[in-house]
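Why Flavodoxin family protein? Reviewers of the renewal asked for a concrete example.
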Amino acid sequence: MEPKIVAINGSERDGNTAGVLRHAAAVAANRGAAFETIDLRDLRMLRCGPCGDCNDRPIRCEQTDDIPAVVDKMIAADGIIYAAPVHGFGTSSLMQTFIERAGVGYLRFDRPLSNKVAGVIAVARRYNNSDVTGQLMANVLLNRMIIVGSGFPAEVQALHKGDYANDEEGLTNVTRMVERMVDMIELLNNYRELTGRADVLDVGDRNERVGLALDELRASL
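Here is what the prediction returned.
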């Protein structure tokens, strides 16, 4: 079965982050894996609304934009990459909005990304790469995905468009990350095929929201 990786590009432009993801796509293709990049800048993405019932509702967000289609692609994939530039010493506003909308409105009910293989890429001129890596990594762990150890973090230094190509070490780390993601996806898929188990790892209670009996709420609808 062909491994499939979906990359979320949190950059507002077709610049260095997009270039790094094209590099990642080439690495994946060389391994026989499908790779799709979703550019958040091209989506209709609303901010979280004033309803305030996210902690109580047992069903998807009611806002109508492009987020549910992206979430469905992530659920159908074997691997997820979050890639974002550093803006204002933190992650880009597009990526922050996506994390909030997707996480609160679609992913928190039963953690459908559990056991997906994940990778994180941060792109910056020089500063705060690790802060963005840490923020995106925390989201990976929140959604119970599997992060692969690939040596140094996949952090690329770049300022002007195209500068990413000059960061040989950064691109080497991206290559290692993608290679290891494909390795882990293949390992998990082989295990599923041999055992017939859909869940290769027990993630326990998928609804960690305090005081919300999810099954009871769904049964009452």
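Residues 168-195 form the longest helix (28 residues). This is the kind of structural detail the renewal will allow us to pursue systematically.
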